């Protein structure tokens, strides 16, 4: 099966190429680049010299649909909302790594993303691609809105407890941290070495575009409106996301009981690993892999649950989850092409 990528020179694209290159049932099709059409891929990424030499091309929906079986869009928000309708009209399946098709409400999209929303008739065709939770819908989807990196780590960490009657849903605080590759390859002052190195910054306080996305999933899965406190931080490392989430419990449970609840919740999900009581996951322990590792602790003095969830933002947070969704859409083992062990140290 041939997989095309749009947004060729970005980090999401080069990570998709790494994963497609070793996938048992997919091979790389057309790479579309807005800025580098005509140039070979290895000119932008010399570490792939002699491996990915193909020339990147301009976007052409009918040509892409003729030559490929699926298209991954790894473009900034505000771009795929214009491209995906043309692709769907040509009958090709799409997986969008951007935020353009994640929020069902067009008003919310405009409010948080500050772009014009996608056309509602196409928005309605999108399935939110949190692989572990929407598995069955994903299998028959034609358009996947791949979740954001922070929402993946946050919601996988929160869902087992909010879906029980144990959590005080008004008390949720997510303290989130990301490596700099989460901001993409584009140059900006905030990702400048001298601004990042030996520094720790909170950003987009109360204004992060992932707030409505996380709340939408929590509402869909609990049937109640849940408002969260969510703060993002930029950490001087390349890859990795850690979400430290605090939830007040309405009943007394022990750490061991929380671990048992989470283990049962994810027992059929190979990419979610629940840590034993007393072991705390770190970002390096999932580096380069599609795992989301979750550590839990209940403080008996406050009866508050602390959830530590970690992912590699470019794998489970983007390209890896996109491949996992393509696997589900095609009826393959969801682990196909995603069996790399974490890279350690
Ligand atoms: N980085 C991460 O960890 C994650 C990213 N995402 C989302 O995935 C998407 C891709 O992210 P990422 O690869 O990191 O971003 P990058 O900034 O690294 O790459 C995006 C690429 O899109 C293309 N592009 C840029 N502007 C335009 C435009 N106006 N029209 C068409 N193409 C354009 C460019 O490639 P070219 O010129 O070659 O076409 C660019 O390199 C984004 O929406 C991001 O929010 C989601 C989860 C995690
Ligand atoms: C470190 C960093 O800057 N991360 C980005 C995450 C980008 C992302 O995944 O956002 P989308 O919803 O547009 O896909 C951010 O916080 O905005």
Automatic annotation (TrEMBL):
Residues 2-141 form the Semialdehyde dehydrogenase NAD-binding domain. Transmembrane segments: none annotated. It is found in: Cytoplasm. Belongs to the NAGSA dehydrogenase family. Type 1 subfamily. Catalyzes the NADPH-dependent reduction of N-acetyl-5-glutamyl phosphate to yield N-acetyl-L-glutamate 5-semialdehyde. CDD domains: AGPR_1_C, AGPR_1_N. GO terms for molecular function: N-acetyl-gamma-glutamyl-phosphate reductase activity. It comes from Neobacillus ginsengisoli. It catalyses: N-acetyl-L-glutamate 5-semialdehyde + phosphate + NADP(+) = N-acetyl-L-glutamyl 5-phosphate + NADPH + H(+). Its EC number is 1.2.1.38. This is N-acetyl-gamma-glutamyl-phosphate reductase. It comes from the Bacteria.
């Amino acid at each position: 099966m041939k997989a095309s990528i749009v947004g060729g020179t970005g980090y999401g694209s080069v990570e998709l190429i790494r994963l497609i290159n070793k996938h048992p049932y997919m091979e790389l099709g057309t790479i579309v680049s807005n800025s580098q059409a005509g140039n070979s891929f290895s000119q932008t990424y010399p570490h792939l010299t002699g491996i990915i030499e193909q020339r990147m091309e301009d976007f052409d929906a009918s040509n892409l649909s003729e030559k490929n079986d699926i298209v991954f869009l790894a473009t900034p928000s505000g771009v795929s909302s214009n491209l995906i309708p043309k692709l769907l009209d040509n009958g090709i399946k799409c997986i969008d790594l951007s935020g353009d098709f994640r929020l069902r409400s067009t008003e919310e999209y405009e409010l948080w993303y500050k772009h014009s929303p996608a056309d509602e008739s196409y928005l309605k065709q999108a399935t939110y691609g949190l692989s572990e939770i929407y598995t069955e819908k994903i299998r028959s989807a034609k358009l996947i809105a791949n979740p954001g990196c922070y929402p993946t780590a946050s919601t996988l960490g929160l869902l087992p407890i909010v879906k029980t009657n144990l959590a005080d849903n008004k008390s949720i605080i997510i303290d989130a941290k990301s490596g700099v590759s989460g901001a993409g390859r584009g140059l900006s002052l905030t990702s400048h070495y001298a601004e990042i190195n030996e520094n720790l910054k909170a950003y987009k306080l109360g204004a992060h575009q992932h707030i409505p996305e996380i709340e939408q999933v929590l509402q869909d899965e609990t049937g109640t409106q849940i408002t969260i406190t969510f703060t993002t931080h930029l950490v001087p490392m390349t890859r990795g996301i850690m979400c430290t989430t605090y939830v007040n419990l309405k009943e007394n449970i022990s750490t061991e009981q929380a671990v048992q609840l989470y283990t049962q919740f994810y027992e059929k999900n190979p990419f979610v690993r629940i840590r034993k009581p007393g072991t705390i996951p770190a970002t390096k322990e999932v580096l380069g892999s599609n795992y989301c590792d979750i550590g839990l602790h209940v403080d008996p003095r406050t009866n508050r649950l602390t959830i530590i969830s970690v992912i590699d933002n470019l794998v489970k947070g983007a390209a890896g989850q996109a491949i996992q969704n393509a696997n589900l859409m095609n009826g393959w083992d969801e682990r196909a092409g995603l069996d790399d062990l974490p890279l350690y140290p």
